[in-house]
Please model this.
Amino acid sequence: MDEKGKLMTDALPDIELDLSFDGPNAVIVGGAHKVVRLDKLVALAPGLLQPSAASRLAELANHLLLGDDFSVITAPGDYATAFRARLATEDPSLPWRPGVIRLCDFGVPDFDEIKAPELFDSRLVFFARDSFTGLPYRIELDPQATDLKAAELYQPLGLTPVES
Model:
């Protein structure tokens, strides 16, 4: 037990992100253990499997799977507000142009579907924003699985077309 009476296995060690440009992304646990797989991370830090740690677990899982390509949506209301604000600056009646990313060219997600990260029944469910397009994706995974593949896990949300 620590000084607050919390079991040490529930306490989260210091976990730092390690971004790689030529290999898998990693995290450094407790300043000593470099980990590239989520199942190995939760074995070293079992406190991440507590429902109260769902946001931190989602951020770490996202980092290990795709690095900076996506960012976890921890505040769905803020995401919806920012999405709508960006959409309001776009004119859907203007023609499409190569190299210009406009949300109105894709559509609008059902913002009620987007939730903060949750961990239940040993499944982590979270939503992440594509760093390039700004579009939301849903991710559901078993943090203790040994064969996680980002291409299979990151599922785009359905989008409603924007009226021009």
